[in-house]
């Protein structure tokens, strides 16, 4: 639980769940001066053995209990199915482990609050994975907003057009409310939404329509959403899992500049972004501000790189439980809006039953 007292002492990590968890393992491999993977865990023993073989001296486990009981694990990185996160986070914290957890963190806003209370009780930390906000393009725009060089926000346009079919949903826990917890809004477009919140802050209201049009599943696979922000800015989010051509795209329109991402479906937060400035004098100020930004890693590597630095410094992680709470509260409002066909104001009231969960 205590931060490392020297950057030469790697953080000892166990990765649990080796679907998307394999990407985490590869990221830790790139960051081997800061991390050492000591164990990987998956219910599929063959998969666990395969991934363990990617690195030296890594144990392959099939039971999370073996990870929780290990003295050489500082951090448990949970990449398990969403419905398992809440219980596993608590078990890790009570076993004296810090936690990194894939999205969605938990299944309700109330559960985020419960996790925060357990972390405070045990002295542990929990870092949600929201790796897209560490892309070089979105980091540059955030820096310009923080430097008050963007001006007033007007409009944001967000597109998530991916393709998922029967083979994807053949995995038993996907496509079901009780195990995946949601559909395209929660499992696919959530990173694109987080990027918008990272730039514009929490919205004041959302109006959403969702539908299941592409796949024979319980949860939604298509959505159209409008967001109204406290600044007065507006945004639209469209998301589908039926697009033949896969893209992700963000376009932000501000008073003094516009910023548009690339369209690579899974890396659109990365450079290059097109930032167009209103006039030559302001262009110089923007260029000077961007020159101040240090070169840092992107995506998972970017988030984990910063996490290692915060542990050494004893600072909060680069993504906090408060960040996850805000994101899940917005997602909750979207599901409520879709079911009730109305704008849902944010933040939700303290007694709003939707805080207990967005699932039907």
Any overview of this molecule?
The chain has 360 residues and is α/β, with parallel strands linked by helices. The protein has two domains: 11-131, NAD(P)-binding Rossmann-like Domain (Rossmann fold), CATH 3.40.50; 132-302, Dihydrodipicolinate Reductase, domain 2. Helices cover 34% and strands 24% of the residues. The chain contains eleven helices and 14 strands. Strand 11 (242-254) and strand 12 form a beta hairpin. Helix 4 (85-94) packs parallel to helix 5 and helix 5 runs antiparallel to helix 11 (321-340). The two termini are 37 Å apart. 46% of the residues are buried. Residues 1-7 have low confidence and may be disordered.
Observed structural traits:
single chain; 360 residues; alpha/beta; Dihydrodipicolinate Reductase, domain 2; 8-stranded mixed sheet; 11 helices; 34% helix; disordered N terminus
